[in-house]
UniProtKB/TrEMBL annotation:
Catalytic reactions of this protein: 4 Fe(II)-[cytochrome c] + O2 + 8 H(+)(in) = 4 Fe(III)-[cytochrome c] + 2 H2O + 4 H(+)(out)
Function comment: Component of the cytochrome c oxidase, the last enzyme in the mitochondrial electron transport chain which drives oxidative phosphorylation. The respiratory chain contains 3 multisubunit complexes succinate dehydrogenase (complex II, CII), ubiquinol-cytochrome c oxidoreductase (cytochrome b-c1 complex, complex III, CIII) and cytochrome c oxidase (complex IV, CIV), that cooperate to transfer electrons derived from NADH and succinate to molecular oxygen, creating an electrochemical gradient over the inner membrane that drives transmembrane transport and the ATP synthase.
Protein family membership: Belongs to the cytochrome c oxidase subunit 2 family.
CDD domains the UniProt entry points to: CcO_II_C (cd13912)
Lineage of origin: Eukaryota, Metazoa, Chordata, Craniata, Vertebrata
Protein localization: Mitochondrion inner membrane
Cofactor(s) recorded in Swiss-Prot or TrEMBL: Cu cation
TM ranges: 27-47, 62-84
Gene Ontology CC, one term: mitochondrial inner membrane
Gene: COXII
CC cofactor note: Binds a copper A center.
Keywords (A to Z) from UniProt: Copper, Electron transport, Magnesium, Membrane, Metal-binding, Mitochondrion, Mitochondrion inner membrane, Respiratory chain, Translocase, Transmembrane, Transmembrane helix, Transport
Domain Cytochrome oxidase subunit II copper A binding, first and last residues per copy: 91-224
Listed GO MF terms: copper ion binding; cytochrome-c oxidase activity; oxidoreductase activity
Protein name: Cytochrome c oxidase subunit 2
């Protein structure tokens, strides 16, 4: 859950999000090094007059051609690794289907019989004390922690997007098409997200709440 005046990401609650945060820090340090080098060269050019030999040197041209290529490789390799990890879905323990409607989400637990429900945002006037305004729903998604979860995402009317920042998940919901992604929660807790596609007038009233619980609690919930 994001805090007021927060500058960084939400606390990572899945291995994919941990990798994304680490890659962000890596790319930020590379950008900081490039900006520092450019600032130093600009200061040097303003403070000292460079000779024609320095400006026309082939060694300098070789360096500023090879160095950016090395930087791009250093950014591309971890990025491709994360993309592969995000697309890899291997024998999930639970499959969940999310269907976007105007303007609420419907969920189906495909591994269970008749375990389906609609998830509506709780209006502010009915919100219990201590709950988050515009983020709490009447029916949360309950999943077992430390278990691979596959989620199939589609829409019934217009474009939507199923996104939970702390889990590193963001997938478009497109009518007539099934998109899928996977995640694993590393700790118990309640994770909040929202529709990240401008889907209409009530776009901001489609929250997503994922509750991660131990397996025994999930089994008890699924039998209720």
């Amino acid at each position: 859950m994001a805090n007021q005046s927060q500058l960084g990401f939400q606390d990572a609650s899945s291995p994919i999000m941990e990798e994304l945060v680490e890659f962000h820090d890596h790319a930020l340090m590379v950008a900081l090094a490039i900006c520092s080098l450019v600032l130093y060269l600009l200061t040097l050019m303003l403070a000292e007059k460079l000779s024609s030999n320095t400006v026309d040197a082939q060694e300098v041209e070789l360096i500023w051609t090879i160095l950016p290529a090395i930087v791009l490789i250093l950014l591309a390799l971890p990025s491709l690794q994360i993309l592969y990890m995000m697309d890899e879905i291997d024998e999930p323990d639970l499959t969940l289907k999310a269907i976007g409607h105007q303007w609420y989400w419907a969920y189906e637990y495909t591994d269970f019989k008749d375990l389906t429900f609609d998830s509506y945002m709780i209006p502010t006037t009915e919100l219990p004390s201590g709950h988050f305004r515009l983020l709490e729903v009447d029916h949360r998604i309950v999943i077992p922690m430390e278990s691979p979860i596959r989620i199939i995402i589609t829409a019934n009317d217009v474009l939507h997007s199923w996104a939970v920042p702390s889990l590193g998940v963001k997938t478009d919901a497109i009518p007539g098409r099934l998109n899928q992604t996977s995640f694993i929660t590393t700790r118990p807790g309640v994770f909040y997200g929202q529709c990240s596609e401008i889907c209409g007038a009530n776009h901001s009233y489609m929250p997503i709440v994922v509750e991660s619980t131990p397996l025994t609690h999930f089994e008890h919930w699924s039998t209720l």
